[in-house]
Structures are given as C-alpha cells and as structure tokens.
Target: Ribulose-phosphate 3-epimerase
Amino acid sequence: MPLIAPSILAADFANLQRDVEMINHSAAEYIHVDVMDGRFVPNISFGMPVCAAVKRHAQKPLDVHLMIVEPERYLEDFRKAGADIITVHIEACPNLHRTLQHIKELGAQASVAINPHTPVASLSEILGEVSQVLIMSVNPGFGGQSFIENTYRKVRELVELRADAGVNFDIEVDGGVNLDNAPLLVDAGVDVLVAGSFVFKSNDPVATIQALKGVETD
Ligand SMILES: O=C(CO)[C@H](O)[C@H](O)COP(=O)(O)O
Ligand SMILES: [Fe+2]
Model:
C-alpha cells in the first residue's frame, strides 16, 4: 500500500486548520507542504510562517517540498517551522551532497527531487544519502496540471538503480496524481503518492485519500 501525502497547496488557505485536521483524521501518512519562491518556479506559494502554522495543528509528519533557489539558506528555518522531511531540487543545489548532510544534521530526513527533464541517472552518486527521492510528474510551480507519462519509466529506472546500489529510500511521485495513474505508479514501484487537487477538489477528501491508499495493482 502506498503512503499518501495530501498537498495543502490545494487546500483552502482561509480554512487551513480545518483542512489540516481533515488530513489528521484521514488515512494519509504525511502532510505535503509546497514552498515556491517565484524564482526556481514561476509561482509564489508561502513560506516558514505558514509551515509553522500547519505544524501547530498537524498530527502527521510534514513533508516539505522546497521549490526555491539556494534552499541551503533556509534549511534551519524550515526545520524550526516543523519540517520532518525536507526535499530540495537537484537543479537548485550546486553542492547537493553538502546540502543533504546539512538537512540530516538538523535532524530531518533528507529528500531530493528531480524535474521532468532531469534524468534519474543524475542521482546515482547521492542515492546513499537520502531517505526519499521525489520524481516530479509535472513541471513544478502549480497544482492541477496533467500528469506526464514518462514518469512510469523514470520510476522503474530508479527502482533498478536503488537495487543496484544496495541502498534504501522511498520513491515519491508528485503532480497530477489521481485514481487513473495511481495503480500504475504503485505497480511501477512508487512508495509515496502526493495528491493536491485530486484530494481537495473532490466531494469527500477523506474518502479520496482512502481510495488512493487502497489502489489495486496488477
Ligand atoms: O509540487 C507541486 C507542484 O509543483 C505539488 O505538490 C503538486 O502539483 C500537487 O498538486 P496536484 O496534485 O494538484 O498536481
Ligand atoms: Fe510538491
């Protein structure tokens, strides 16, 4: 069964406490927190104060996805704001190994993300340093985009690379996840499904989370 990480990017920001409590009462494992700076991605979402506010009501670990340039400047701040897992983008980190060490020194779990155009092979030298790899299945910056189909192949490649390296980490997929692609993703080897719009725009978000959790594979 996949772990489920609903993204609060698609929540009602004026009712954030209510939506965090919905996640608390659901079958989800994490709360996915999307931080966008208007530079690494075209959009701006929110920063540390909102992350800290979510943390005050959260009963599940915060999976914080930093879509920002120079993320190393803010690691301590997001750790203080309650981040349990911190994801940085390989495309934003010239000294990725150092950045991942820093995340771990702060007591958080280190995670690295790759954009749709970035090959899985570019991760080969740091796979032993992370507890999670996030494969973007849309171009980062916005919720509600369509899932990019080459994600399945990238997941399979990463599963193979992980086995060859003899290391362990979770594979997370983020962007356009729904009940059509979730079974195929889990079948390909995904451990963590992020879902924003599909959960929060549904009539019954708790039931939608449950449905994602229970996806059948072939
Ligand atoms: O990182 C993200 C966008 O950059 C979001 O986590 C992702 O888009 C989730 O939203 P949706 O499920 O609506 O696609
Ligand atoms: Fe995300």
Summary: Residues 151-165 form the longest helix (15 residues).
